[in-house]
Amino acid sequence: MNKFQGTGVALVTPFNADGSVDYNGLKNLINHLIDGGIDYLVSLGTTGETATMTKEEKKKVWAYTAEINNNRLPLVAGIGGNNTLAVAEDIKAFDATGYSAILSVSPYYNKPTQEGIYQHYKYLAEVSPLDLILYNVPGRTMSNMTPETTCRLANDFKNIIATKEASGSFDQFNQIMRDKPEDFLLISGDDPITLPMIALGASGIISVVANALPKQFSDMVRQCLANDFKGAVPAHLSLVEFTRLAFAEGNPAGIKAALKHLGVCGDTVRLPLIKASSALEHSIINEIEKLVQVA
Question: What Å distances lie between residue 143 and 87, 105, 112, 245, CA to CA?
């Protein structure tokens, strides 16, 4: 599982002004992240605005991402939803060339019981050609996957290898770390608490902020993984304000504003999301210039 140690990045999907996928921008982003020293890529997670993309667009983005990555880093594909049978069909139809795992969000909107969540992932684990990473994000799904359910899945299915935890609950993190199999990974799903989660035993982060600041973020994570928390604290604190701004008007509007300023890709998002306000964009630019200058 060492391939999922460190800093993974949930890629934004760059769009042209007319709303079509900007493949040149995606190429720039992938190279920007690899040059910045991140450890693996996650294609079409929530940050990739998958809720507004067609199946055909997703197929093309996955294939193009694998082509540009060219096996330089491990690749994860985001394939999830609240219709178990449909998600299973998407997983079975997925061209896994160049990919190492699938990140699958816990079912949203339906608000299933814990047994329903377990049965959902059981079904997916039995059909998936790749390893699965669970994704618990109650703020979006309105349904929390408990530590008991997480660890039950981890113990029952060898191809369920990790969980991206975005519950924000350290009580939950504690229980997972205590009860999980030794080789099962706890991955932070929240940028601001990466340092304390690694201190607890997490393997790293699947980050949004690192889209814009891959070197700054991955260097900090490496210090943490080397148990140099004293050395990592200044870098951690230096990212606090940028992280707050990046999420101030939702994800990925803020991080796309930063990427536009850096010349990586444009800041177009698809409705119902809208671009960052001019005031927020100005604040993001001011903050990122401080961070890039420091780096």
Answer: 18, 11, 7, 26
Q: How many residues appear in the chain?
A: 295
The DSSP secondary-structure symbol of 212 reads T
- Beta pairing partners, 9: 41, 207
Preceding peptide of 74 cis, ω within 30°: no
Q: Which residue has the tokens 């939803």?
A: 81
Domain boundaries, the chain: 2-229
Q: Is 164 a catalytic residue?
A: yes
pLDDT tens-digit profile of 13-58? 999 999 999 999 999 999 999 999 999 999 999 999 999 999 999 9
206 assigned binding-site residue: yes
Would you tell me how many other CB atoms lie within 10 Å of the CB of residue 84?
18
CATH homologous superfamily for the domain 2-229: Aldolase class I (3.20.20.70)
Sign of CA dihedral 179, 182, 183, 186: positive
Residue of 40, 58, 164, 215 marked active site = 164
Residues 167-195 have pLDDT tens digits of 999 999 999 999 999 999 999 999 999 99
